[in-house]
Amino acid sequence: MLARVILPVLILLVGALAGGAAAVIRDTRAFEGRIYPGVAIAGTSVAGLTRAEAAAAAHTAAQAITSKPLALQIGSEDRTYTYADLGLRAYPDEAVAEAYAQVRTGPPWVRLIRRIELIGRPMDIPIRSTRDDRVSRALLTRMVEGFSATPEDAEVTVQSGRVVITRESREGRTLDVAATVQRIAAAMDAGADRAVADVEVVVPRFTTANARELSVPLATYTTHVGGVPNRVHNVGLAAAYIRGTIVGPGEVFSYNKTVGPRTGSRGFREAPVLIDNELVPGDGGGVCQVSSTLFNVALLSDLQILARTNHMRPVAYLPIGRDATVTYGALDLQFKNTTGHYLMIWSSLAGRWLTFTAYGTADPARAVSIIVSARETIAPPTYTVTKRDPLLEEGQTVTREALPGYRVRTYRIVRVGGEVVKRELVVSSYYNPVPRTIKIGIKKPTQTSASP
């Protein structure tokens, strides 16, 4: 009885196997040299393709992976690289080999089952890739060689009355290579298109953007330089020490700090200076004309005056109340940049004409005027002073008549759109009255040796 049941089953099973085997054989012949249906590589179907055709598709997919851009932010700068540049390598041929191997391994019945599985559940073979961090480390190491931890300010000059940028600013940058390699690796693992370098950035004090703010002259003032050639030389030298000085928003300009000591080792020559109401030879004679001319530019630029001292007597090259004397280590001219933008102070000495200009950001509606008023004349003393003068020859006398003194006040008026928005007393000045003075020479005649 059992035999009668088993025998038909075996016959049917053998028949099924024989039919399956025949089907596998027919299927194998139909896809000889080609990939079976139901197989894709990196999202692209390769069913029915030859290995060469599938390889072309796989290499295209691999190229899309390795050519993916990644922007590396380094401070304020972006540098873009491909994943391949940063050490990613793809293996498309492995995917092609795996795709082609489907339904081609094992006995016929296993291949038949696999063939049926692909019909119901297609497979997508990813392209394997590896990342070599040594590549990105080498790239960053080469990059660091071009970095400097010291920032560079923008440089400017004046040509035909306009500020011209002669050097762009550059950030100071210190890059942590190891930490940045890790950040790049994490970004690539996540398939990101951006990574931020581990970099310490030192921004320049004066950037290219700041330099572009120096668009117009805010104020210009010119004085005539009189006196001996040494005095003219000193005026030009002091002005040159100031030329091109950049004053940032809120910063304080100091004349003495900028010009420095007026010594022979720094190029200054002996020329007349005003001491005790008299002109006498001294180091750096003439530098007060530079400070006085610059003082007027600061006034007209509406800068805050922090320190200023008038001369003991009015000067010939400026109206009363608009001068500023300086003495290194004692009297200084100081003003604060209250414009909210960068300033550049420029100077020139053309022949005997000294000009200072402050360049900054335009405010066409703003106008500044300077008024010296409340002038009070102080009568000179009625007595006479007698002085022994070592510069006059013995027996020579010079009489200087008495001179009145003065008190004045210097006001600044600021208008915006024609309307007065500020009227301020900037400085008060007191010029000494001078008594009648008689100078008696005490300089001995030069002794000469008798001829033999």
User: Radius of gyration, Cα only, in angstroms?
Assistant: 45 Å
N-end to C-end Cα span: 169 Å
Class computed from helices, strands and strand pairing: alpha+beta
> Helix fraction?
25-40%
Widest β-sheet, arrangement of strands: 13-21-20-14
Relative strand content: 35-45%
Main sheet, how many strands, which sense, barrel? 4 strands, antiparallel
Shape: rod-shaped
- Report the mean per-residue pLDDT as an integer: 89
Number of strands: 27
Tally of contiguous helical segments:
10
- Which ranges are low-confidence, i.e. pLDDT below 50, for 5 or more consecutive residues? 12-17
Descriptive terms for the model:
452 residues; alpha+beta; four-stranded antiparallel β-sheet; three-stranded mixed β-sheet; 10 helices; 27 strands; 35% strand
Describe this structure in words.
- The chain is of the alpha+beta class.
- Helices cover 29% and strands 35% of the residues.
- Helix 5 (133-144) crosses helix 6 and helix 8 (229-242) packs across helix 10.
- The chain is built from ten helices and 27 strands.
- The protein has a four-stranded antiparallel sheet. A three-stranded mixed sheet has the order 2-1-6. Strands 4-3-11 form a three-stranded mixed sheet, covered by helices on one side.
- The longest helix is centred in the N-terminal third of the chain and has 29 residues, at 2-30.
- Residues 12-17 have low confidence and may be disordered.
- It has helices at 2-30, 51-66, 92-101, 108-120, 133-144, 177-189, 208-212, 229-242, 255-259, 287-300; strands spanning 39-41, 44-45, 69-74, 77-82, 88-91, 123-125, 128-131, 155-159, 162-167, 172-175, 194-196, 199-202, 216-224, 245-247, 252-254, 270-275, 278-283, 304-307, 334-336, 343-350, 353-360, 366-378, 384-393, 397-400, 405-416, 419-431, 436-443.
- 26% of the residues are buried.
